[in-house]
Structures are given as structure tokens and as C-alpha cells.
Amino acid sequence: MIIALDAMGGDNAPVSTVHGAVLAARESKHKILLVGQEKVLSEELLKYHKRYDLTSLNIEIVNATEVIGMGEHPAKAVRQKKDSSLSVCAKLVADGKADAFVSMGNSGAAMAAALFYLKRIEGVLRPAISTTFPTIDGSCLIADMGANVDCEPAHLLQFALMASIYSEKVLGITNPRVGLVSIGEEPSKGNKLTLAAYELIKNTNLNFVGNLEGRDIPASKADVVIADGFVGNVILKFGEGLAEMILKLVKKGLKKHPVAWASLPFLWLAIKDLRTKVDYNSTGGAPLLGVNGVCVIGHGRSESKAVKNAIFAAANAAEHDLTHEIKAAVEKYSVNAQSEKTNE
């Protein structure tokens, strides 16, 4: 697989992006295109020539003269900066010169670039950002995570279709359980959006387990969790905050009760496992589902480990022909989508 990496995107770029690319190249056979300012990237890459044999790494630098900052207006920046590292990444995929692209930069701009250059898959109403969320038995996939704060029922139906395919084909979960976030388990509970979406999702061949309350998500009651982008983003940020609070409480408890330090060697493995579960660096990035190509968007604060894992996630999605699988599923339920498009 050929993966284009926005090497100038992110709070820690290009240090973390170049290092992440080096790590990914050492651990795989993927070709990585480092997209950005050639002089800057060449100098950064040379820092590793004593540690690694750079000639054996399948890395190529693709020059892009402009950079889209984290605070810039997404759509405006993509339109005006056509030679930005992010725009060039998207164009490489659109032109068939790369199988996927990864960015740790401005997430709104990454989505705008994907829509501008790759376009939506025919029949897809709204692309969705999905990401894994830690649960008691592993993790689940949540969609949408913030790309669409205002949704229609047909949007949630398509989020369910696309996320279910990603969960099965890329994450390897057989017949994933799909749940809809609501305020009660009963089909009659919810608002106008969730009530209508419930009926649409119920009438598919998805393994729909019905409504999920907030507590059901970490309890592993579904493999795929569906919500509009507003609710999905709140769930994600609440989960991140809760995890940080738990870790801080453990540290505070150890300081308050010095005798507890004696048990630290036994607690450490559990604490380490918890940190891994909630660490976005382990996940890598979130796939943008519904565009004509593979795009993985990472956290702006990502370190090299996250960059490496995002590259692997993008390659995995491309290898499983995710775009084709989603297109087939959307076509199957195009009647629902078309009726919603008419109402917009």
C-alpha cells in the first residue's frame, strides 16, 4: 500500500510525523509519501540516518509549499492553499498515486480536503468520522464523532451501514452488534431523530440490538454505536475526561496513603492496561467514512506512535477495499437515502 502522510499537520509536526513514518516503514512493507516542505522534511529525516538505514526504508518526500494551520477556517484554507501538504495528500489519492492519506492536522480541513478532492461516495448523504472507544471487553466503534452535529434519520442509517462495514471488514468483528444512542432501551424512547432512525435501522440486515443508554456503551453491549456528531463527540470527550480523572485519582490515592505504594508493583499492570485502552496514540486515528478514498484523521497532539498506527489503520482500510464495500451497502438501501435527499 502507498500511504500519503500530511507531514506538516499537527501540533508536533514535523518531528512526530517523520518519526512515525520511519517507524511505520521499519515495521511494514508500505510505501510512505512524506508530503510537505521538502527542505524541512529532508533535514528531519536525516536525523535518523545514524539509528536506521534510511536507504532500506520505503519513504519518499513529496514537496508541498504550503501548510494549513490548526486554527485556519477549514473550507477556506483548502480552497486557497491548493499546494498545502493536506491538499496534496488528498490529490495524490484522487489521482491514484496513493491508496490512502493520513493527517494529524486541522481535522475540519482534512474532511474538507477529502470532500473537495475525493468527493462523496455516490449515494452517501454525509460522511462520518468514526473512532474506537474503550469498553470493558475491548472497544466499540462510534459514529459520528463530530462531523455532523445536525442530522436526519437517513444520515444515522448510513452511519450505521458504513460503521458496521468498517467494524466487520477492517476491525475483523463478525456480524457486529449495532446500537443507537438514546435515553432508554425501549423503542418508544428518544427524540424525533432517534425514533425515526430506529425504524430505518431496524429494517436492514444489520445486527441491530436496539437503543443504548449511556452506561451500555462502556459495558460492551454493542460493537458499533450510532449517534449524531453532537452526541458522539460529547461521549468521546466525556470518556477521555473520565479516564484522566480515574488515573489522577489513583495517583492521588497513592500519595494520600503511602502504605499503598507497597501494592504498586501489583497494580502497575492494571494501570498500564487502562492507560493503553484510553490512549489515542494506540488507536492512531479516526477513519472518515463515506468519501471516495481512504482518509484517516488523527489527534492534533499525536506523537510518533499515533502517526505510525494511523498509517497502519489507513493501509488496513485500503487493503480491505473499504470504499467499494460502503458503496455496495449504500446502494442496497438507496431508497431510504433518496427519500431523505428529496426532503433536504
Task: Name its key features.
344 residues; Isopropylmalate Dehydrogenase; eleven-stranded mixed beta sheet; globular
Please outline the major beta sheet. Answer: 11 strands, mixed
Strand content: 15-25%
Count all strands and give the number: 11
**Mean pLDDT across every amino acid position:** 91
Could you spell the SSE succession in H and E letters?
EHEHEHHEHEEHEHEEHHHEEHHH
Subunit structure: Homodimer. Probably interacts with PlsY.
Function: Catalyzes the reversible formation of acyl-phosphate (acyl-PO(4)) from acyl-[acyl-carrier-protein] (acyl-ACP). This enzyme utilizes acyl-ACP as fatty acyl donor, but not acyl-CoA.
Protein name: Phosphate acyltransferase
Subcellular location: Cytoplasm
Task: Please characterize this protein's 3D structure.
Catalyzes the reversible formation of acyl-phosphate (acyl-PO(4)) from acyl-[acyl-carrier-protein] (acyl-ACP). This enzyme utilizes acyl-ACP as fatty acyl donor, but not acyl-CoA. The chain has helices at 15-27, 38-46, 74-80, 85-94, 107-118, 153-170, 192-202, 229-256, 264-278, 280-283, 304-319, 322-332, 334-343, and strands at residues 2-6, 31-36, 59-63, 100-103, 128-135, 138-143, 177-181, 207-212, 224-226, 286-289, 294-297. The protein has 344 residues and is of the alpha/beta class. It has two domains: 1-124 and 290-320, Isopropylmalate Dehydrogenase (3-Layer(aba) Sandwich); 125-282, 3-Layer(aba) Sandwich (Isopropylmalate Dehydrogenase), CATH 3.40.718. An eleven-stranded mixed beta sheet has the order 3-2-1-4-11-10-5-6-9-7-8, with helices on both faces. β2 (31-36), α2 (38-46) and β3 (59-63) form a beta-alpha-beta unit.
